[in-house]
Amino acid sequence: MRGCPKDRRGNRVNKDAGASVKSIAADTKQRRPRLVRAAVSLPDATTTVRMLDADLAIDAVGWLEVESSAVCGTDIGLYRSGLDGPTVLGHHVVGSIVSLDAAQADAWGVAVGDRVALEEYLPCQDAACAACSSGCYRMCPQTDLWKGKRRVGLVSAEEGSGLHGGNAEFMQLAANSIVHKLPADLDPDLAAWTQPFANAIDWTINVGGAQEGTTVVVVGPGYHGIAAVAAARAAGAAQIVAIGLSSSVEGLEIAEVLGATPVVHDDGDLGEVILRATAGRGTDVLVDTVGLEGSAVAASARSLRTGGRLVVSGLGSTPMYLDLKALVRGAHSIVGVRGRSPSAVTRSIDILASGSSGLDVVPTVAVPLDEVDEMFARMVEGRGPSSPHVVVRPQPVLAESAGRTEESRVS
């Protein structure tokens, strides 16, 4: 399968990460939860905190005590459009292993007490599956967001224990969970960036081709847009431009602190805006995180340098006109992206652990389980916090101490 990594296992073992984490799983004895507090989201776009029975788990090979569950635009989009049934959302999950079968520990190269980040995918891992057998498990039909829907934060809360997402004190681990070991001392706020930053690395560097000396333009200074700015910075881009609406000025300010030139653009010719921001030189990489579609394609025809790439990660529904002459003459590429490769997760963890990502400047809005309903309602209505880094902290101690900002409590 083209564009997919050769890594067949997908589970990262960092030998330098340390054997265990001194946090919510301080000892290495097996601990299995019984009754678990969870924020259960419902089809009517409300969320209620319930006690779920871990003893009802089906095919659980272990348990994770959840440290953080970062809120993604996908969560809010699904919530707004109506979930299929009661669901424990949350697919950008970090936590500590408190229980694990010996065979699974050996297969993953981790142990009880280790701190890990989960990918959202629950692939079939069948040898007959073209995606899984090629190492591209993120494209497995079983774990597809619109088809099989077997993924962390999307499996029904009425199935088994119901503890299949990160918005709970504990969640069950399955044999097909994808885990990546984290350094024991990685700051909790930075650890919560593991998957979104990995997405950005894949989209901006691996697919977009950003490297030292290039120019990168990011449209949309939201959750993934800020991560894309950080990825471009990590690649050594000579110029980074972040473009957003006047209503997203706070996100543009964060992007500026990360090294981007902020540009407010509410209407008009996006291509002209990009050319002005780059002094007429254009851009090597244009990352559309909001789903502009037609206008992004039109802008790329005018503003991409020779060999430049338009990377589309946002979903939109507007009609599109494609200027094939500009595409061919400029040797441009237009690429759609989903998720990330295992190598991008490895690089994300390494950069976050090095302290060079810059994402520590982004305020973390920590949300305890009891406030998920109100926070989700705000975000659905477009009244969410100015910082894009909203993180559910199921553990009371972590919710009170980690990443507190003036907006950390729902008001």
What key phrases describe this protein's structure?
alpha/beta, Rossmann fold, 2 domains, disordered C terminus
Describe it for me?
- Residues 225-353 form the Alcohol dehydrogenase-like C-terminal domain.
- Keywords: Oxidoreductase.
- With 411 residues, the protein is an alpha/beta fold.
- It folds into two domains: 35-186 and 363-401, Quinone Oxidoreductase, Chain A, domain 1, CATH 3.90.180; 195-336, NAD(P)-binding Rossmann-like Domain (Rossmann fold, 3-Layer(aba) Sandwich), CATH 3.40.50.
- Helices cover 27% and strands 21% of the residues.
- It contains 13 helices and 15 strands.
- It has helices at residues 73-81, 102-108, 130-133, 188-191, 194-207, 223-235, 249-257, 270-277, 294-303, 324-329, 342-354, 372-380, 396-401, and strands spanning 35-41, 47-53, 62-70, 92-100, 115-118, 170-173, 179-181, 215-219, 239-244, 261-264, 283-288, 304-312, 333-336, 364-367, 389-392.
- Strands 3, 4, 5, 6, 7, 14 and 15 form a seven-stranded mixed β-sheet that branches. A six-stranded parallel β-sheet has the order 10-9-8-11-12-13, with helices on both faces. The protein has a two-stranded antiparallel ribbon with strand order 1-2.
- Strand 1 and strand 2 (47-53) form a beta hairpin.
- Helix 5 packs across helix 6 (223-235).
- It is globular.
- The chain starts with 34 loop residues before the first strand and ends in a 10-residue tail after the last helix.
- The model is unreliable at 5-27 and 403-411 (pLDDT under 50).
